Amino acid sequence: MKMDKEQVIRELTELFRNTPGNTVGEKDALPGCEGLVMYEEPIFGVSDPADPLYVKFKEKEVIGDNFLGPREWLPGAESVISLFLPFTERVKGSNRGDQEVTSSEWLHSRIEGQAFINAFMRNAKEYFESRGISACVPAQDPRFGVRTTALPENDPKGVHIASNWSERHVAFASGLGTFCLTRGLISSKGVAGRYASIIISGKLEPEERPYTGVYDYCILCGACIPRCPAKAITLEGGKNQIKCRDWVHEMGKRYAPRYGCGKCQTGVPCESGIPLKAQK
Ligand code: B12
Ligand code: SF4
Ligand code: SF4
Fold this sequence. Notes:
The chain has seven helices and ten strands. The protein is an alpha+beta fold. Bound molecules: cobalamin and iron/sulfur cluster (SF4) (2 copies).
């Protein structure tokens, strides 16, 4: 069924505004975080499930053969909608300081913020289903999983970590942005934020991607390198997964029940937009 893309985006944005949970309540708040609004309104991208990129993603050096294409998640899929939810200035600003300390605002946005995104995406699924459109949110599907594969000892990536539905790759295919040195995906609203996606049987016009290269929006300025407390990032090797993962796990012990880091996504030229030299 063909759908009016502008109307769908307008109504999903309204749904975002009406889904409770984007503001941290007094009861759950870490000191100073009462009333914190975590996410700005999302930006949207759309791709065609038949896009050859979804076949390419199954290659070992891209994601791997565990990646499931849109029609494996949802038979009859006609569109993939990808969303980027930028953090608010209050969240980003709070994490620009001390390299070793994850800000309370960032921790909230990672944990309560993801719970809010999950609720919003459940509402988005219901929105389509109530209109007779089938929908699947892979991140909330029982089939969703992450696979870790060993790499040769001298490989700067450490290990290959790959989920069977990678939000960044889907966003890349859907015209939202490109990868960068830290492996984050830089959108027109920057890298500091989170991605989500939904596959539907309704037909929406796919986006024309305003880039061709995998790393077009990264200017390789290296500003993220000294930001990383785990020394996980190098200009030559990108981001080492083991060092990053171990640091994020360490933060899980320090800030339990929350965790997070994101120092490489704040206080850098790609934080809130496409760095100047990479703009087209
Ligand atoms: C596993 C995981 C982790 C692991 C491993 C990270 C990783 N990069 O794989 C660990 C624990 C280390 C981690 C850490 C963090 N994570 Co994490 N993580 C995930 C998760 C669940 C899966 C990642 C995945 O599938 N990777 C797949 C592999 C294959 O990706 P890759 O190796 O980077 O891909 C490279 C190759 O494909 C290569 N390539 C080679 N040839 C080709 C050809 C083509 C055509 C293309 C496109 C690419 C390509 O380019 C890519 C980049 O180098 C996703 C959620 C999801 N379902 O997607 C979140 C996710 C990636 N994490 C996220 C975040 C925010 C974080 C943290 C900041 C933690 C925090 N919140 O404080 C850190 C730092 C991440 C960073 N610097 O980007 C966000 C990223 C948001 C963004 N702006 O990009 C995601 C998307 C979650 C979300 N819902 O928003 N994470
Ligand atoms: S800080 Fe510079 S090098 Fe690092 S990801 Fe951003 S644009 Fe790329
Ligand atoms: S999220 Fe990972 S790569 Fe980024 S600064 Fe923290 S430890 Fe380093």
